[in-house]
């Protein structure tokens, strides 16, 4: 069920009469990672909605990191699958009077594609998206990956934090040390252990994160990839593009952002990425 804050955002979006834009954050981040994006889109005439995953950690990165590794901070429901989270966002979108655009990052990018494939988005932007069901080539796990073996119950049933070294290597490899430290303190939180395991198994055509690639009501789709992204390298993002570009009903595009890593939505270059997403949506949606 949407939280009281999310209900308030939905009510506000409906009252404005504007086209909503639903921002879906990825693993190890919070909805606050979209605050600057929401302001830009609001100024462009859209109604931003920045929901959390179900039973998300408390607001703010520092409080959410207080639990020991392998345990869930108070208020979390860590054993969330991608399918369960997609259902949560589908319910939230169902409360909107107008079909929204959807923008997602990392696992949020996968969720954006799932929602678009269900006909719930008038346009979608998937940034550094986790791999689709049946996607090839296999996703490349970065060294010092934060997720342990699937058989480990501490991973499957709890939240998994990132150390600073893991965050620096996987998320913030394309920025300097000072910015990496700032990003970690501002944004990094423990994440459910299940979705990364699902992403690692996405080559299986029967894995859960299913996307309807040929949906007639999918809407236009842009996939974005950072040139230096270690979590979702170009080969993985392009495989998702190749699996959807044959949708004969709607345009599918892909774009690589030079010199950018996985932190491209929150680091110092966020405005360029935001502007690119906004321009794409504005091509098809009149705010």
TrEMBL record:
Domain of life of the source: Bacteria
Record GO terms (molecular function): hydrolase activity
Region (Disordered): 56-79
Domain AB hydrolase-1: residue ranges: 21-266
Entries under InterPro entries matching the protein: AB_hydrolase_1, AB_hydrolase_fold, Carboxylesterase_BioH
Keywords assigned: Hydrolase
Key word Nucleotide-binding present: no
Protein name: Alpha-beta hydrolase superfamily lysophospholipase
Source organism of this protein record: Nonomuraea africana
């Amino acid at each position: 069920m949407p939280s009281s804050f999310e209900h308030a955002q939905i009510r506000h979006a409906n009252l404005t009469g504007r086209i909503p834009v639903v921002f879906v954050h990825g693993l190890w981040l919070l909805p606050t990672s979209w605050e600057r994006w929401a302001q830009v889109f609001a100024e462009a005439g859209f109604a931003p909605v920045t929901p959390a995953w179900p039973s998300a950690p408390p607001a703010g990165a520092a409080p959410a990191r207080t639990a020991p590794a392998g345990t869930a901070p108070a208020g979390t429901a860590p054993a969330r699958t991608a399918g369960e989270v997609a259902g949560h966002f589908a319910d939230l979108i169902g409360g909107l009077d107008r079909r929204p655009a959807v923008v997602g990052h990392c696992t949020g990018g996968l969720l954006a594609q799932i929602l678009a494939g269900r006909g719930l988005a008038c346009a979608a932007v998937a940034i550094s998206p986790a791999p689709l069901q049946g996607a090839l080539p296999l996703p490349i796990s970065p060294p010092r990956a934060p997720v342990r073996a699937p058989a480990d119950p501490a991973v499957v049933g709890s939240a998994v934090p990132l150390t600073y070294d893991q965050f620096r290597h996987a998320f913030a490899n394309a920025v300097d040390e000072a910015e990496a430290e700032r990003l970690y303190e501002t944004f990094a939180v423990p994440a459910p252990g299940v979705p990364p395991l699902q992403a690692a198994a996405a080559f299986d055509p029967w894995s859960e994160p299913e996307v309807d690639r040929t949906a007639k009501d999918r809407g236009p789709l842009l996939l974005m990839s950072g040139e230096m992204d270690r979590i979702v390298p170009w080969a993985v993002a392009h495989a998702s593009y190749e699996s959807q570009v044959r949708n004969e009903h709607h345009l599918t595009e892909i774009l690589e952002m030079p010199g950018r890593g996985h932190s491209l939505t929150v680091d110092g270059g966020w405005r360029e990425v935001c502007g690119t997403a906004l321009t794409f949506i504005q091509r098809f949606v009149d705010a």
